[in-house]
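Work package 3, deliverable 3.1, input record:
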Amino acid sequence: MAQATRQGATESGQYTPVGTIHVVDPNPLNWLFITWNTMEEPVRTDAEGHLVGAAMEDSRWVDETTFEVTLRQGIQFQDGEELNARSFERAFVEVQQWKAPHPPGTSLNFHPDTRLEIVDDYTVRMIFPEPDGTVLGKFRGFHLASTRFWDEIGFGYRKLGTGEGHW
Amino acid sequence: MIDAPGPWGTGPFTLSEGYSSLYNEVAIIGADPLNCVWLDTREDRTDKVVLTANTDHWNKERGPRLERVVFLNDIPPAEALDLVCTTEGQIDIVTEVSPADAEKVENSEYAKLVIMDSMRVLVGIINRGAEDAPLNDVRARKALNMAVDRARLVSEGFNGYAHESAGVIPQYAAGYPQDIEPYPHDPEEAKRLLQEAGWPEGRALKLATLTATEGIAEILADQLRQSLGMDVDVIVVPDEDVLAAQHALVEKVMPLPFDVLLFNWIDLSSDAPPAFMHGYLYGAGGAFRAGPPVEEFDALMDQFAKEIDAGRQTELSTRIDQFVYDEALSVFLVAPKALYAVNRNVDFVAHATTLELAETEVTEDHWSRRNGA
């Protein structure tokens, strides 16, 4: 089977998408799986569930409360817009305006007094009021969306009038 | 959640038709600072949700390897399972296959069973706040743990598709304490501990469950009856009462009507389980804590939350899991495996914490390639 499946790949190991599959997924987290298949976050999980970089190429703690994120260059939203530090900033502004945006609850929130600084086009710094050792896990729910998404529908904004409980 | 299709993200697929969304309502644990969770009230999915390959995706080594993924939401799971097992070209993947159906998939000419160690746990939440039972006494909680025959639970309740749990962290996740073993099945010691803790003569244990885990609850109840020589009342929460029961558990205003609640929980990564598992189950602000806060646990969690060194944080995960094991804060049961029924011509890459399909591909013999779909 492996040999046959590799026929979808180019010689460089890059894949040309082929085929259609039909899926029935009764998991109540299907809404999240659709999001994760179509949007990206700074991190994703590999098959074993370990966090790996997605839109984030690298990160480091500058000091105990300053977390620097380097975004991967060359990423485009599906409408052609470039993903850069401004995209991260927009997502941060959007998520911080709600009291409890994530369905699992406020434990996924960044501290409300967290500040963001743009260092350059692909580097941002998050300045927390206290150390946040769970920031990488929280990034799993920090969806990076295009400007059009925020302006036109948002996470429940247009349909429900709020992003509370809908990220 | 995304309420309308569009080129909204940078992911390997574009949401090109339909949506999958969720309605929920808030359950408040604390007001200052606000601490709450959202309880699902209704899923809102279109009959069909179509994902189309994002051919400009930056990570070409990962994928996407499929042109289209179509989620069919108007086919009941049982019917879908029949279709994937008996036909080709209708259903390619069915998730959340019950262990009871695994053999049907394995015997299928068209489908194969894909088994994944997932970040899922089944525990018995112990109501340490019960007024007329000594469940705030660690001896009683250890007694419950030693009354369980986990090997039998795995074989009879899960047809083998689960791992026996020691603490909360599954053995394949970060921070699993290498030195601990699941509590032994030792009915005599369990009876002795329960008597020492002062369990009232004739007081039946109240074991609550949702309908989805009723069968497991009955197996567990039989084990508790046999091991402890006590009556066990199984309380099945009717589906229509689940939301109210969830509010009661999360908001902690009214006394809880159970001693032990059979409870499935998950994590969204394998790297720092206390953030999503232990904190929810036992933390002072934990949605599923049943009973008074545990000061030593909360001190460890505070260290964990502020630890920015990954290695030291993993060490803290181990200490936290060891602590909840030593204190027997739950009846630790099993880590169920995720089961999928998959068409034989689909090379499905299962994930421990998600359903992402970027790495999944189909063979040349797959119906969609034969038909040019």
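Chain A touches chain B through 87 residues (CB under 8 Å).
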